Each structure stands twice: as structure tokens, then as C-alpha cells.
């Protein structure tokens, strides 16, 4: 008994334990405070909980190789810490965006912050996973909360439909993931990352390869990569806008981080097999995301297709399968969280007489009616298009550079062309704001929304002054996953 407990290190999961406890406290507080007071109190409490959890993540001593606990079920390192801080930041900012929106839509309920906290706990477990079973447990904990969040506006047919579609397709992807795990276990005899790595080499059994493909399919669904993207446009459009902003940030970071760790960890010896799949998925996502968004008139659907394209660009770094590629992945995720949440802050500000509007044409003449909002949204659009010297340019530059170094020239060329095509619909939004005649006047932006929009706009616009703040950290932690 002493031996077993000697291997259990609760310190490695302090952030997860703290957030789980915080979720329970917030739930009980909400039940006793009453609906009106409870919603704002639980939202503020959840944001503070995320901040404290981030401090725990940053202050934890990891060492050069990280820390393993719970009989090698969990592994934490500087790499996982980078992802966790991004997840916590994305969740906190998404909650800031939600408060005023839900109050104006009269759907404010204290359960929402609690569900966001529980989903975040699942995400943190996902990136700490060192076993396929831990991976699945974290993924399902995240997904169960996200299914409810997607249909949070229960009086809206669109929101209910979004939640149902996400649930059905999510259950399908989870089944595929679990089937892949069972195949890998059946043929390799283990689910532990450390034990699988030496067993899975360049010449694996066919069953292991099939199992790996199913695992990639399950995780590709979570990052909304083509051809597993079908849920994204409907969920982004149907879910309340703050929920869409949350979906565009933290869950994408968690799923992409998990995909990186699975492919470079237990399947690290099978690069020749999975690299082909990632290249295909990356190309399909970049091209589809760039082309499909051209005819969109709803800005939330446009952002959904945009997110598909951006996940394709992120996968370019993973396809490179080297430390520079992982650096590009981390930089892209960090920049995308900032750009995405800033853009959604501007979308949440699209209200006329208290009612939310979502059409791109509703932005007509915004530069004359609300110049600061137009400036911020214009910055985000230029950045997503990859225009220098904004942050989005650096994120694309680093993934493409890694692909060139890995001799993936065709992938790089297709990526650059897809980026050029995608620039069309970003520039169309700017054209509507600056060159069309004003048709409506938006309501004044709520303080919390203005704070998120302003801060993310500054980071996006001024990233070029000191990009090393993120790039150097990303490069340092990437060498822990793929040396050199």
C-alpha cells in the first residue's frame, strides 16, 4: 500500500483539483444566492478561479523532463503548462464576454460559469494525459459540459439544434476514438504513452495503424478539421455568441495540444504513417476553410469556416514533425486565441436597440458610427489574413518556415495560396465597414466586452514589437516534446 501511494503525487494536479472544488463551491453558492445575484457572482468567482489556477500552473516546478504521477497516468511539463495557461486565459476571457450578453438576452443563469469551469477541468486533464484512458476521461469530461453549453439558450430552436448536432456528432467521434484506443491496446498490449513509444516503430502492425487513424479522427473532430468539420458552422451560428467565442478558444487549444502529444509521444516512431494523414487533413482544412467562407453572409458562420482554415494552418506545423513545427503550433494557438476572442468581442457588440444582429451587411458604415469598434475589428481581420506586421503574420510565418525546413514544399505553397484566397472574405468585412453607407447604429459596447476587444486588439497590433515574449517560450517548451 505504501508503494502505491508513493507514486501518487497530488501536487501535479493541483490546478485541476482546485478548479473542480471551485466548481462545486460555485454551484452551491448559486443555489443559495438566488438567480439574479448568483449569475454575476459565479461568473466573477469562476474568473478568479481561473486566475488562481493559472498561478498554480506557472509556479509548479517541472524540471527538465516534467513530472509523472498516478502510476504514469498523468504527465505535466513546461509544454503542458504553456497549453494550460492558454486554456485558462481563453476560458476566463470567454466568461467576461458572456456576462452582459446573457443579461441582455434574459438567459443569464448561474449554471453557465459552472459548466465552463467543469469543461476547463476536462481540458486540463486532456493536456496532462499520459495514458489513452486518461486522454479519454478528460475528453469526455470536457465534451459533456460543452454539449450542454451549446444548447444553453433552451428557448431558441437554433441553440437547441446546435446542441443536438454537437452531441450526436460528438458521440460518434468519441466512439471512433474509443475504438481506436481498443485497437491500439489489443495489438500493442498497453495504453500508457511511455510503454507504447518503444513498441510502435516504423514497421507497425496493421491493427495499430488502423487504431491510430481512428484516434486521429476522434481528435480531428474536436479541432473541427476537414473532413470532420460538419458540426462547426451550425454550432457556431446556433449557439449564443459568447458560447461560440468559448468554442473558438479553449477547446481548440486543448484538442490541438492533445493531438500533438499523442502523435509525437506514443506514435512518435510512426511519423511516416501519421504525417501523410496530417498533411491531407491540413490541406483539406486550409482549402475548404478559405473557399467555403466566401459566400457566407452570417458573420458567426464566417468565423466557423475561418476557424476550420486556421486549424489547417496550425496542422502545417504538426506535419513538419520537428521542434520548429511545434513552436509554430504553439505560437499559432496563442495568437489565434487572442484574435478569435477579440473578433467575437466585436461580434457581441453588434446590437441594435438591445437585439443582437449577426449579418455582415449590418456592419455597413461602422467606421463612421463607431470608429473604434471598426478599427479593432479591422485589425483582427487583417491579422487573420496574415498581413504584416500584425500577430497573425508571425503565426503563419513560423508554421510555414517549419514546413519548408521539413521539405514539405507542396504543403507550404498550398497553404500560402489558401491564405491569399482567405484574405478575400476578411477584406470584404473591412470593405463593408469602411466603404458602405451606414444603415443602422449599434448600441454602446458593454464595459467587459470593450475591455476584451481593446486588450486583444493591442496585443494583435503590437505583437511585432516584442514577439520573442511568446516565441522564445514556445521554442523552449517544444524541445521538451521533440528535442533539437
UniProtKB/TrEMBL annotation:
<keyword id="KW-0812">Transmembrane</keyword>
<feature type="transmembrane region" description="Helical">
    <location>
        <begin position="243"/>
        <end position="262"/>
    </location>
</feature>
<protein>
    <recommendedName>
        <fullName>NADH-quinone oxidoreductase subunit N</fullName>
        <ecNumber>7.1.1.-</ecNumber>
    </recommendedName>
</protein>
<feature type="transmembrane region" description="Helical">
    <location>
        <begin position="406"/>
        <end position="427"/>
    </location>
</feature>
<dbReference type="InterPro" id="IPR010096">
    <property type="entry name" value="NADH-Q_OxRdtase_suN/2"/>
</dbReference>
<keyword id="KW-1003">Cell membrane</keyword>
<keyword id="KW-0520">NAD</keyword>
<feature type="transmembrane region" description="Helical">
    <location>
        <begin position="329"/>
        <end position="352"/>
    </location>
</feature>
<feature type="transmembrane region" description="Helical">
    <location>
        <begin position="74"/>
        <end position="98"/>
    </location>
</feature>
<keyword id="KW-0813">Transport</keyword>
<keyword id="KW-1133">Transmembrane helix</keyword>
<feature type="transmembrane region" description="Helical">
    <location>
        <begin position="274"/>
        <end position="295"/>
    </location>
</feature>
<keyword id="KW-0874">Quinone</keyword>
<dbReference type="Pfam" id="PF00361">
    <property type="entry name" value="Proton_antipo_M"/>
</dbReference>
<dbReference type="GO" id="GO:0042773">
    <property type="term" value="P:ATP synthesis coupled electron transport"/>
</dbReference>
<feature type="transmembrane region" description="Helical">
    <location>
        <begin position="302"/>
        <end position="323"/>
    </location>
</feature>
<feature type="transmembrane region" description="Helical">
    <location>
        <begin position="135"/>
        <end position="152"/>
    </location>
</feature>
<comment type="function">
    <text>NDH-1 shuttles electrons from NADH, via FMN and iron-sulfur (Fe-S) centers, to quinones in the respiratory chain. The immediate electron acceptor for the enzyme in this species is believed to be ubiquinone. Couples the redox reaction to proton translocation (for every two electrons transferred, four hydrogen ions are translocated across the cytoplasmic membrane), and thus conserves the redox energy in a proton gradient.</text>
</comment>
<dbReference type="GO" id="GO:0048038">
    <property type="term" value="F:quinone binding"/>
</dbReference>
<dbReference type="InterPro" id="IPR001750">
    <property type="entry name" value="ND/Mrp_TM"/>
</dbReference>
<dbReference type="GO" id="GO:0050136">
    <property type="term" value="F:NADH dehydrogenase (quinone) (non-electrogenic) activity"/>
</dbReference>
<feature type="transmembrane region" description="Helical">
    <location>
        <begin position="372"/>
        <end position="394"/>
    </location>
</feature>
<dbReference type="GO" id="GO:0012505">
    <property type="term" value="C:endomembrane system"/>
</dbReference>
<feature type="transmembrane region" description="Helical">
    <location>
        <begin position="110"/>
        <end position="129"/>
    </location>
</feature>
<feature type="transmembrane region" description="Helical">
    <location>
        <begin position="448"/>
        <end position="466"/>
    </location>
</feature>
<dbReference type="GO" id="GO:0005886">
    <property type="term" value="C:plasma membrane"/>
</dbReference>
<comment type="similarity">
    <text>Belongs to the complex I subunit 2 family.</text>
</comment>
<keyword id="KW-1278">Translocase</keyword>
<feature type="transmembrane region" description="Helical">
    <location>
        <begin position="208"/>
        <end position="231"/>
    </location>
</feature>
<keyword id="KW-0472">Membrane</keyword>
<feature type="transmembrane region" description="Helical">
    <location>
        <begin position="17"/>
        <end position="34"/>
    </location>
</feature>
<keyword id="KW-0830">Ubiquinone</keyword>
<comment type="subunit">
    <text>NDH-1 is composed of 14 different subunits. Subunits NuoA, H, J, K, L, M, N constitute the membrane sector of the complex.</text>
</comment>
<feature type="domain" description="NADH:quinone oxidoreductase/Mrp antiporter transmembrane">
    <location>
        <begin position="129"/>
        <end position="421"/>
    </location>
</feature>
<dbReference type="GO" id="GO:0008137">
    <property type="term" value="F:NADH dehydrogenase (ubiquinone) activity"/>
</dbReference>
<feature type="transmembrane region" description="Helical">
    <location>
        <begin position="164"/>
        <end position="188"/>
    </location>
</feature>
<feature type="transmembrane region" description="Helical">
    <location>
        <begin position="41"/>
        <end position="62"/>
    </location>
</feature>
